[in-house]
Write a structure and sequence with these properties.
The protein is α/β, with parallel strands linked by helices. It is built from 8 helices and 7 strands. Helix content is 32%, strand content 15%. Strands 4-3-2-1-5-6-7 form a 7-stranded mixed sheet.
Length: 213
């Protein structure tokens, strides 16, 4: 994963509560288990004029010229609710999003964000509303997410602190997925295994089995 320290980028406001994973990536757009090839299906039900079409819906925020290339999404409460499909985060990441700012997240979606290098930033409703309004009014809709300092800032000077789990922050800063995080403990795992072999040797024995008839 790409490490996340501090990103200043175009931020797109999508202030709808309860944006579920089927809205983020409809099941009809999930044509494989791969992390690739999902960006075109991101928000397909809102982004295009009709099912199966790729004609842009001009009023949808990501189709507006001022939000082209957005890397931060500002959303409503309970963002990422619905099914546990990780494809929703994969689609957002492939599109180019590095962070989502919202009042609250579905826990599974939040975990999927962290596992895929996307920062879930939780701020209160008032802060999110202020940010969304400022983005709409600014000449350039820029927002900074600083994971090292744990702050979100507008170019106008307003900023807000945010909390994040320490282990999640460490993984995001280092660009480590869950396997990478586990491998940080490789030496402890090796020592445990060496000790456990002497305590419970039967667990490590290979048992011969007859081939299936």
């Amino acid at each position: 994963m790409t490490p996340f320290t501090k990103v200043t980028a175009i931020a797109a406001p999508l202030l709808r509560d309860n944006i579920d994973t089927d809205a983020i990536i409809p099941s009809r757009e999930m044509r494989s288990a791969s992390k690739k090839g999902l960006a075109d299906g991101l928000f397909a039900g809102w982004r295009y004029t009709a099912i199966g079409s790729r004609e842009p819906q001009p009023d949808f925020v990501l189709n507006r010229a001022r939000y082209a290339g957005a890397q931060i999404l500002v959303g409503g409460a309970n963002f990422g609710c619905g099914s546990s499909r990780e494809h929703a985060v994969w689609a957002m990441a492939e599109y180019g999003f590095r962070a989502v700012v919202a009042p609250s997240f579905n826990p599974i979606f939040k975990g999927n964000c962290i596992a895929n290098g996307m920062v879930p930033v939780m701020l209160d409703h008032a802060a999110v509303d202020t940010i969304a309004t400022a983005l709409e009014q600014a000449a350039e809709p820029l927002l900074t997410v600083d994971l090292e300092m744990q702050r979100v800032a507008l170019t106008q000077g307003l900023s807000w602190p945010f909390a994040i789990d320490g282990e999640a922050r460490e993984a995001l800063l280092a660009g480590r997925d869950p396997i990478g995080q586990t491998l940080q403990l490789a030496e402890r795992i090796r020592r445990f295994r060496e000790q456990d072999v002497t305590v419970r040797p039967w667990i490590y024995r290979t048992v011969a089995t007859s081939p299936a008839e």
